[in-house]
Design brief:
Lambda Exonuclease, Chain A, alpha+beta, 12 helices, binds iron/sulfur cluster, 41% helix, two-stranded antiparallel ribbon
Length: 371
């Protein structure tokens, strides 16, 4: 069996929304391997602790994953422990890093669910997201729903399941998202996604650019459909590249431009990464070369520098900084951290602009806020 399904659950946001992406991505290598390795290490640590017991902190300094490529840090141990605590709090009959088979809905569909917990008539599928870039929500999360279909197909006969809960634990964003649906609704969605999967396997499957699907598509630097879409956004509404003053744009033009911001930026970044990869691998690219990036000065020998500075500046040679609440909690451990609970408060976040369909509640601004 291949290590990744062609119609993978993790790539489902892409192939559901852009059927042509399956063929477009074929044969293109994964970039940013170090992020992937860090994520794999976090998942391996979680599995070790959930299966063998103990705490993630006991693994600090231990090299994990293939070829000992990544070492568990204090920071990783703290974040992964949050996931472990969540999974343990769900209870029930549990399986960890469990392969599930959703091929009854998606041809050759299989994947690995981080945690499946069965408790009464409820099946909970929990996904650890170690990344801190994009916030992932549980509601209508196609990856979680495909894993839930697979888990139901493989283990649904252990207990009479009526309800499904999808959970995303994203500790580096301090974010836990839960969403419950009935088994009947999940199976109905399974029929819908089955049709979407069929569309992907057609030889002339359409490429449909969009923010969600193009975000992690490996073909985006060279995709003609995305190029056409970005050209439309940048050029068609405006006469030329001398873009007009923002204040002269209509509301519709501004909405269209902002709606496409991530898509255009993502495409430009992908083109830059593609050219950079060509130049660094010696293939060259006309009009571009590699130069030395900006570097920050550093001490050649920290110990010698500390001694010299102390002799010159005494205590002023060192800065003392209070730990942040998150770092203090990690250093203290779960039990002692209770002693500082009352000292911590979370200020209101500064309002940020979001699209109407963003799952967060809209912030009400009153006249007092302008004082
Ligand atoms: S870049 Fe976007 S439009 Fe092109 S194949 Fe990928 S997902 Fe589809």
């Amino acid at each position: 069996m291949a290590s990744h399904a062609k119609l993978s659950a993790s790539g489902s946001d892409r192939w559901i929304n852009c059927p042509g992406s399956v063929k477009a991505e074929a044969g293109i290598k994964e970039q940013n391997r170090s992020y992937a390795q860090e994520g794999t290490c976090a998942h391996e640590l979680a599995e070790l602790v959930l299966i063998n017991g103990g705490s993630c902190f006991e693994w600090i300094g231990q090299p994990l994953i293939e070829n000992n490529a990544f070492t568990v840090t204090q920071e990783m141990a703290g974040y992964v422990q949050e996931y472990v605590d969540y999974v343990q709090s769900v209870g029930g009959f549990q399986m960890h890093e469990q392969q599930v088979d959703y091929s009854a809905w998606v041809p050759e569909g299989f994947g690995t669910s981080d945690a499946i917990c069965i408790h009464g008539d409820l099946m909970t599928c929990i996904d650890l997201k170690y990344g801190k870039g994009v916030t992932v929500h549980a509601e209508k999360n196609s990856q979680g729903m495909l894993y839930a279909l697979g888990a139901y197909s493989d283990f649904g006969d252990l207990q009479e399941i009526k309800r499904i809960k999808i959970v995303i634990v994203q500790p580096r964003k301090d974010h836990i998202s839960e969403w419950e649906l009935s088994l009947a609704d999940l199976l109905k969605w399974g029929e819908w996604v089955s049709q979407k999967a069929e569309d992907c396997l057609q030889p002339d499957a359409e490429r449909v650019p969009g923010e969600k699907q193009c975000l992690f598509c490996k073909a985006k630097a060279t995709c003609p459909a995305l190029l056409k879409k970005t050209q439309e956004v940048i050029l068609s509404d405006f006469d030329n590249l001398d873009l007009p003053e923002v204040s002269n744009l209509t509301d519709a033009q501004m909405r269209k431009a902002l709606d496409s911001k991530q898509l255009v930026i993502g495409w430009l970044n992908a083109v830059e990464a593609h050219i950079s990869e060509r130049v660094s691998s010696g293939k060259g690219f006309q009009g571009y070369k590699l130069v030395e990036g900006r570097a920050v000065r550093a001490w050649q020998d920290e110990k010698a520098a500390a001694e010299k500075l102390q002799s010159l500046l005494d205590e002023a040679a060192f800065e003392k900084k209070l730990l942040s609440p998150a770092k203090a909690e990690k250093a203290l451990g779960k039990v002692k951290a209770a002693e500082i609970k009352d000292l911590i408060f979370k200020p209101k976040g500064k309002p940020v602009l979001a699209r109407e369909d963003d799952p967060r509640e809209s912030v009400q601004i009153s006249a007092d806020d302008f004082d």
